[in-house]
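Technical note accompanying the year-one report. For the benefit of new consortium partners, we illustrate the data format agreed upon in the data management plan: each record pairs a sequence with a structure-token string. No post-processing was applied to the example shown here.
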Amino acid sequence: MTIARPYAEAAFDVARGQKALDAWSEALGLLGAIAADPQIQAQVGNPNLPSDALRDLVFGVAGDGLTQEMQNLVRLLAHNKRLAVLPEIARLFDDMKTAAEGLRHIEIFSPFAVSAAEQKALAKRLKSHFGSEVELTVEKDPNLIGGIKIRAGDVVIDGSVRGKLQQLSNELQF
């Protein structure tokens, strides 16, 4: 994520300046999907393939829908051997876009199903905590044992039993 963040921030600044957040989000989503494809990943991981060939491969799959600035981003990533971070750049860009629109995407992990009433109560508490509208995604994670884990971008609130046991173990130096 630390590698992807500066690229995502730069792309966001350019997109906001152009008033083209939706177009950039769509293009980065496409580029992220291309980079996440197993066949493309195999080529990106090939040290014998020159960066120009990787760039042309991505352009060939993406087609003609990329603006000059988007193409420049792909060129820069290919030159720096960073095409593999495109899916993370797309995710971070979308998080920034959502935040700029006054909405915060929050992931909730729970070992059990979370009812609609519980989701509504969580959304209300998180809205007051973060000071913006929230959009919840709830995923079931039986590894947590009990409690919940909340992730909102870089912020992680781990109220799970597993997390508390890990914290206790760290404090006791086990």
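Partners are asked to follow this layout when depositing records. The two ends are 29 Å apart (CA to CA).
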